[in-house]
Amino acid sequence: MKASQAWRLGIGDLQIMPAPRHRPHLKRPMWIIVLVSLVSMFLIGAYIYPSRGFAACYIFSSRGCKSFSEWLPPTPARELTDDELASHVFIKDILKMTPLQSRNPKIAFMFLTPGTLPFEKLWDMFFRGHEGRFSIYVHASREKPVHVSRYFVDRDIRSEKVVWGKISMVDAERRLLANALRDPDNQHFVLLSDSCVPLHTFDYVYNYLLDTNISFIDCFEDPGPHGSGRYSELMLPEVEKKAFRKGAQWFSMKRQHAIIVIADNLYYTKFKLYCKPGMEGRNCYADEHYLPTLFHMVDPAGIANWSVTHVDWSEGKWHPKSYRAKDVSYQLLKNITSIDQSLHVTSDERKEVQIRPCLWNGMQRPCYLFARKFYPETVDNLLQIFSNYTMK
Ligand SMILES: *[C@@H]1O[C@H](CO)[C@@H](O)[C@H](O)[C@H]1NC(C)=O
Ligand SMILES: *[C@@H]1O[C@H](CO)[C@@H](O)[C@H](O)[C@H]1NC(C)=O
Ligand SMILES: *[C@@H]1O[C@H](CO)[C@@H](O)[C@H](O)[C@H]1NC(C)=O
Ligand SMILES: *[C@@H]1O[C@H](CO)[C@@H](O)[C@H](O)[C@H]1NC(C)=O
Description:
Layout lengths: L1 H15 L13 H19 L5 H7 L21 H15 L9 E8 L6 H8 L6 E7 L26 H15 L4 E8 L3 E2 L3 H9 L4 E4 L33 E3 H9 L2 H9 L11 H13 L4 E3 L3 E2 L19 H9 L2 E5 L7 E5 L1 E2 L2 E2 L5 E2 L7 H11 L3
Parallel strand pairs: 1-2, 1-3, 5-7, 8-13
Antiparallel strand pairs: 3-6, 4-13, 9-10, 11-12
Bound molecules: 2-acetamido-2-deoxy-beta-D-glucopyranose (4 copies).
């Protein structure tokens, strides 16, 4: 923080110095030239050696340098392993690439479900009239789904068994992404479950996801037993404890991030081997930690840190609140769509509540496009009020 202040100051000062093409007039007193060169040498020095910028901070920052330790050189950089180096180079290049420009950008809706989707009729209503702007992929891990909507017919992908909390969950997510990436028009990828319902019109969702360049991946630091407590040092050296993050599985991500996910083998393998239920007496769930940790490490500014899928944990139980038919009302849906702050609670004894505004391109906006968990019995109520609650 302080180093970057000194750094910025250095650059700014350099810029307001006389540009070289106006060569200093010889008549000018020599001491000015000497002073200017001394100052610029100092500033260049502070720029090149920001971590040693203690003197710079001492001179230029009146707010002071509270802690000397901040100015100690950072611990010497670890030498990267071959895989890590390759992975860093690859990810950096992907992130710098301008995304494939599509004349007809689409959103991929990827459903992760055990079998038949109870809300297909509702989704049918949501998609109707927007043909050509979305693609659907269904990963049914237990039984072949029966489809009632023409948009879902023939959209099942090859699936494998998924065990809750195990790496097979992440494998299914990657399988969905790989299938959806085959269509170059797919620019944004949304993961949904069988208990998810849409909260807005298609147009609203389409613009919300495509008119920004970030991915909505839930991510926060939880120092408690259900967060960093699940970390295993066997993940070293590539994944350090301080980088370990947590977040809900239900992501939406841009194309570059989707490519990174299916290409990553290094970090994926760490989580596959060392983040699993019953690991060293702890339960680690790869689907809650792999993507948040990966993107926190490789592109922290590229993710929103909240998920666009709402879920209500406020009851403080093992499972989130699940809505019954009697719970579903216009008011409930309106309540959910009006939330514009994300909330995370740590699992340590402090139970710290972290509240952040949901910033979309810098503006505070409602956080959620979808919600879970709804029991299948709610479908009729939802169908009845869908066009009402999605109205502005
Ligand atoms: C997103 O776009 C904004 C403005 O166009 C830019 O400042 C920002 O760096 C971009 N972020 C990412 C992660 O590409
Ligand atoms: C998400 O959190 C990281 C810190 O973990 C931060 O650097 C980044 O700016 C946040 N993303 C947004 C969009 O605010
Ligand atoms: C909606 O929110 C209001 C205010 O927070 C609350 O009083 C009300 O009970 C909520 N209604 C439903 C149906 O959730
Ligand atoms: C939508 O639902 C609300 C609350 O039940 C009701 O007041 C309103 O009249 C409804 N609007 C339409 C267009 O049905």
